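Journal club prep — side note

Before the paper discussion, L.F. wants everyone to see what a predicted structure for a comparable chain looks like in token form. Sequence:
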Amino acid sequence: MGGGWEEPAPDVVRWRLPRWDATAGAVGGAEGVLLVDAGASLREGAELRRRVRERFGRPVTHLALTHPHFDHVLGAAALAGAEVHGPAGIAGRLRGDGADELRADAVRHGLDPDAAAEAVDVLVTPRHAVSGTYPLDLGGGREVLLVELGAAHSSHDMAVHVPGRPAVVFCGDLVEESGPPQAGPDADLARWPAALDRLLELGGETAVYVPGHGAAVGADFVRAQRDELARRLP
């Protein structure tokens, strides 16, 4: 994978993965490293694992899955040993018929069928289901907040808030910069604007908002996207 880490805040980095331009983020503390999303395949997950160790000098200890779409979850099994967190209810979307739908969606978007099948066969579901908010201590005063947002872009969305100067909010696909927000069959358009209001409450006016796809943005961009989504409501 080309390119390199961007560092919107000290020891807070993000990678724009190729092909679908999906974000993977990482937050380093004295005792642990959190990876935010795992890429679209086992290959991408393994590359993220390698690059995180190279960047922070230690392995990924925690993995946060922001929502159950293939380009954010199919690399999870490559992060062996990491504690996996996700929004409450996401596990049901990654098993059984949900897993079959995930594989079909990945192939429909251009992932090699064998790579999709392999990733789904060993797909990791979160051990830690986040309801409401969940503080995660990475050591050395570095605490991040996992925030469940319910159904909006997907059936189960979660954001990651990293306090600091500046604060950083990993938005998942609740925010997209490289194209208009994508609303698939599992989206809840009526609840999406309120989810973006919650992101703005978390980060405030000075935060860096890291979208699921595209370049990092500020509060004004998130607010404009919130207003555009609200205009789509009947």
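L.F.'s comment for the group: The two ends are 42 Å apart (CA to CA). Keep this in mind when we get to the figures.
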